[in-house]
Specification:
By secondary structure, this protein is α+β, with helices and mostly antiparallel strands. It has helices at about 25-35, 40-50; strands at about 20, 60, 70, 75, 80, 90-95, 95-105. The protein has 2 helices and 7 strands, in the order βααββββββ. Helix 1 (about 25-35) packs across helix 2 (about 40-50).
């Protein structure tokens, strides 16, 4: 019997961060970003697995009330990765895992 055919997930290096969705909206938004901005989504994946909480023009902590997020009673810094066309990925880091909270295919109203 031959093995089941399918895509092979990219393995992580021991120095890299894992990425997971923590909301249904994040999973749906990620699917939509991959469908509309495949190369940008791959660049975001590479950046978030290597240095998710290192600030630069594309990736930075959100400001004001959005700067932190409470999950399971623990407060975390909330970050944003900017893609083209105003698309955004909002996430926090817990240990060696990037937790994606929201993915927007266009600029979110909360930060306008």
């Amino acid at each position: 019997m031959s093995p089941k055919k399918g895509l092979v997930a990219r393995p992580l290096k021991s120095s890299e961060f894992a990425i997971e969705h923590v909301t249904r909206q994040a999973a749906t938004g990620w699917r939509d970003i991959v469908a509309t901005q495949k190369s940008s989504a791959a660049d975001a994946w590479d950046r978030l697995t290597k240095a998710p909480n290192q600030s630069d023009p594309k990736c930075h902590q959100l400001k004001g009330q959005l700067a932190t997020i409470v999950r399971d009673g623990v407060e975390h810094d909330q970050w944003q990765y900017e893609l083209s066309g105003g698309a955004r990925i909002w996430f926090y880091v817990e240990g060696r895992t990037v937790k994606i909270v929201n993915v927007f295919t266009r600029h979110p109203n909360q930060t306008k």
